[in-house]
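Before a colleague's protein record goes any further, I have to sign it off. Alongside the sequence sits a line of tokens, each denoting a local backbone shape. I want your independent view on whether this chain really folds as the tokens say. Where you disagree with what is written, explain briefly why. This is what I was given:
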Amino acid sequence: MLLPDQIAVRVPGWDRELAWESEPATRTWRLTGPGGQVRYLKTRPADAEPPLRAEVDRMRWAGTAGLAVPRVVASCQAAGAEWLLTEALEGKDATRSSLRAEPERLVSLLAAGLRAFHGTPAAGCPFAVTPQDMMARAAERVRAGLVAQSDLDADFAGLTPLAALAELTRLGRARLDAAEMVVCHGDYSLPNVLISAGQITGFIDLGSLAVADRWSDLAGAALSVTWNLGPEWVDPFLASYGAERDDEAIRFYRLCDGLGL
């Protein structure tokens, strides 16, 4: 991997190890310096959505807002890709088996972390996404033929993209009145929460951070808890956060995800 000059000059001769890879062609590398210092390098195609520069902007704002997020060392666009170099944070992600072995403790910790994130003052946050925005974007994607029936998960099996859009619109009307707008992570899931010594030490993958409906985070977190711990831990997670289960809100945001939002 040939690094652009803006990145290479900050990690000269550092060892590289692929940390994880996701779609669309997004790769994150763990770089280790001669003194043991660690940085992470994320790269993705310049035409990918959302663009990596969106995460750069959000990470910088989150840092000024007092959130525990990685510090941006450098970012640039080169060779048809975007590049983001950040300092490492202390801790391991919440999918570690040692953490999942104590699900009651873990869901309480995850709930407390999300509640604190949502408590970040929203004044001055330049990013916002409303349920109305979500419905409008979903309609654009469906009408442009960008959604396939196979994109929808098992809960919506049998729905065509148009039928899924109609269901989203029905559910979304309720969210217009019920939405509680707070600073949301945008992808609050176990892999994106770092923990050390029984404490949350940071949050990563902030490309969708915005002032948004708190249930957009709660629904995603509930799905991640289901995948990593089991569905029986969703209600304890919600109770620890301080929210009553809202299946209509969860369904709305699950549909948003299926429609590529």
Q: What stands out?
A: The radius of gyration is 19 Å. The chain has a mean pLDDT of 94.
